[in-house]
Amino acid sequence: MTHKSDVRERVFSELRKVAHPDSRFHFDFGEFIADFQGSSAATDRLMAHRHYRDAKCLFITPDNCLEELRYRALCEGKLVLLTTYSIKRGFWLLDPARIPPDRLLYASTLDGMERHAVPMTLQDIRERLPRLDYMVTGTGAINEQGVRFGKGHGFFDAEWGMLFRIGKISAETPAAALVHDCQVLSETLYPEVFDTVADVIFTPTRTIEVDRPHKPTCGILWDLLDPHMFDTIPPLQELRRIEAALSPMA
After folding, report:
1. How does DSSP assign 201-213, residue by residue?
2. H helices of 76-147, where?
């Protein structure tokens, strides 16, 4: 954890030079994933990639740097599953067929999402959604082998674990990270068993393909889960109930 903190401090110092402040958290990168100069170019790269072109149903994190991607995906008619900030209000589905075209931009924001999206329990996702084709996230720092260091809360890895456990993604589901060039590290980092390594990294100037990225298949490791996360994140509580009722899960 000390090493991760050192990495974050070094990267965040550079990121501050190119990041856009958040209206609530300013430059506190421990509380949000920032948008940055050149994010539109990184978004263009992501949307030109085969993983995105082939996807019809995507999970996109609520990070600031992915707002344009959420909007453009909706404009292209793709289903977008996402969570609220810190997952505390769960999963939501943005279906462009149910949103007026002039509200798609607003719907892609955190404030607009809950006005135009449909809340989804894990059971809803399991029964009503197709398998997810793509998982996209921002992050705090990442190396060229796709090992991510986020804000330190572990939200994306928890989201991966939950969606994996209910059968909506698999070890073959591609994951992408969209970041600024200054967030990409050349040093060796080592993922934990529950860390989701990115298949591909998109920056304003580079597309970095990762060879054989590690994808966790352990679901949620309850013994290692922070009790505060369990107490404050309803989907984790729901998953625990599902696992208790359907063990082993079909």
Report:
1. EE-SS-EEE-SS-
2. 104-107, 110-116, 122-128
Helices (H), the chain: 2-15, 39-48, 50-53, 67-75, 104-107, 110-116, 122-128, 155-165, 227-232, 234-245
- Examine residue 54 and state whether it is found in any structural domain, yes or no: yes
25 part of a folded domain: no
CA distance 159 to 90: 10
Structure tokens at 128: 């009503």
Output the domain CATH number for residue 46.
Answer: 3.40.50.10420
Residue 205: CA count within 13 A, CB half-sphere: 6
Whole-angstrom distance, CA of residue 237 vs CA of residue 227: 11
Please answer whether residues 182 and 158 qualify as being in contact, where contact means their C-beta atoms are separated by less than 8 angstroms. Answer: no
**Do the beta carbons of residue 233 and residue 159 sit within 8 Å?**
no
**Does any domain span residue 250?**
no
Total count of domains within the chain: 1
* Number of Cβ atoms within 10 Å of the Cβ of 3: 11
DSSP string of 37-72, one letter each residue: TTHHHHHHHHHHSHHHHT-SEEEE---GGGHHHHHH
Interhelix angle 39-48/67-75, nearest 10 degrees:
40
Q: Which domain holds residue 128?
A: 2-19+32-243
pLDDT of 195-236, one tens digit each?
Answer: 899 999 999 999 999 998 989 999 999 999 999 999 999 999
What pLDDT digit, counting tens, does each position of 38-59 carry?
999 999 999 999 999 999 999 9
Considering the entire predicted model, what is its pTM? 0.93
